[in-house]
């Protein structure tokens, strides 16, 4: 056997078909019979043939590039997203190009459109908070660009969005903390200009109300979803004369900041203070004490977004079930929370 890399001509010869027929199968054309498609696919697998991406793109007028647009300080979150997208797109012959941007910039839409044009992107996956921009979504639609938004709110047609049901997740967190005897709870939000921050706060607060409790404004502190903002908020909370028995932070980064401050102040977690976060990133299970948190299946969301964007690019039939756009996070209980001992 030769070490030479197999070509499309080799596949055509082994399958007994024309090179054009092989090309049609590679590019997902519907003009090839099912029996012939299966034959060609079996030959491709047996020969371990990998189509040249540049030639494939020229033949189909596509780049086979997916874009990922984000503005998020959490490197662990971005890593989870990329892994989820790559798990899908690499199998489908697509590559991933990432583009960090500034959500608060007046030139957000112009910046993202420039990235898509320069990189000749076939479609983009947009992460929160950038995915919350109505202006960007409108521009993508106006320019007939394939896109999928990952978000915490149902903001778009279901073919263009993957939603994390964060209100329901926060209801679960609120019920858990109350079941542990906590009544005096402080809440560190993310930026209140973000839908995700508002959704989590609303889900937590409304569930407390259903349980006959309140979350007063004096116990709500705005953070920036960063480790340092968690530290800053925790210092304000834990310096009060009357400290809460539990603190929820909008993400694991800020919750880690709370644990740092509690340690420095000699406050034992979870004996004197329960701490919980949101995301369940790699940090959550490795810090001491390990963090009770809401596990948002970021990798699964990203993989679903990649499947949806490729279907849109290739004009495949969309799936209309709830599971095609809605993902449900859930509570993970670890060492940072315990029953309230304060009488």
UniProtKB/TrEMBL annotation:
What would you give as a GO molecular function for this chain, any one? DNA-binding transcription factor activity
The membrane spanning regions, by residue number, are none
**Pfam families linked to this entry:** LacI, Peripla_BP_3
Domain HTH lacI-type spans what residues? 6-60
Q: Does the keyword Transcription regulation apply?
A: yes
- Every HTH cro/C1-type domain range: 7-50
Alphabetically ordered keywords of this record:
DNA-binding, Transcription, Transcription regulation
InterPro entries according to UniProt: Cro/C1-type_HTH, HTH_LacI, LacI/GalR-like_sensor, Lambda_DNA-bd_dom_sf, Peripla_BP_I
Which PANTHER family does this entry report, sorted A to Z?
Answer: LACI-RELATED TRANSCRIPTIONAL REPRESSOR, LACTOSE OPERON REPRESSOR
What this protein is called in its record is LacI family DNA-binding transcriptional regulator
């Amino acid at each position: 056997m030769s070490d030479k890399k197999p070509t499309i001509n080799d596949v055509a010869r082994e399958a007994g078909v024309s090179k054009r027929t092989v090309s049609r199968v590679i590019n997902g054309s519907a003009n090839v019979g099912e029996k012939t498609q299966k034959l060609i696919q079996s030959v491709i697998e047996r020969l371990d043939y990998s189509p040249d991406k540049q030639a494939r793109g020229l033949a189909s007028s596509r780049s086979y590039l997916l874009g990922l647009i984000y503005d998020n300080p959490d490197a662990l979150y971005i890593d989870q997203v990329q892994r989820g997208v790559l798990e899908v797109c690499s199998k489908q012959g697509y590559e991933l190009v990432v583009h960090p941007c500034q959500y608060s910039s007046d030139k957000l839409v112009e910046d993202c459109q420039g990235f898509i044009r320069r990189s000749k992107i076939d479609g983009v996956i947009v992460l929160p908070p950038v995915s919350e921009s109505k202006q960007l979504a409108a521009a993508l639609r106006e320019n007939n660009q394939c896109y999928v938004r990952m978000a915490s709110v149902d903001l778009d047609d279901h073919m263009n969005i993957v939603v994390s049901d964060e209100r329901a997740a926060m209801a679960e967190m609120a019920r858990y903390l109350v079941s542990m005897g906590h009544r005096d709870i402080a809440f560190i939000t993310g930026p209140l200009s973000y839908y995700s921050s508002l959704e989590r706060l609303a889900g937590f607060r409304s569930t407390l109300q259903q349980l006959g409790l309140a979350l007063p404004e004096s116990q709500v502190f705005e953070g920036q979803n960063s480790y340092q903002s968690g530290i800053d908020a925790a210092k304000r909370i834990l310096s009060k004369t009357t400290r809460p028995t539990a603190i929820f932070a909008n993400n694991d980064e800020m919750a880690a900041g709370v644990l740092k401050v509690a340690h420095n102040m000699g406050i034992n977690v979870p004996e004197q203070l329960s701490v919980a976060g949101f995301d369940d990133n790699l940090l959550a299970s490795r810090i001491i004490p390990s963090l009770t948190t809401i596990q948002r299946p970021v990798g699964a969301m990203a993989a679903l977004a990649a499947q949806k964007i490729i279907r849109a690019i290739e004009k495949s039939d969309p799936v209309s079930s709830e599971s095609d756009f809605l993902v449900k996070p859930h509570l993970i209980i670890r060492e940072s929370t315990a029953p309230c001992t304060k009488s």
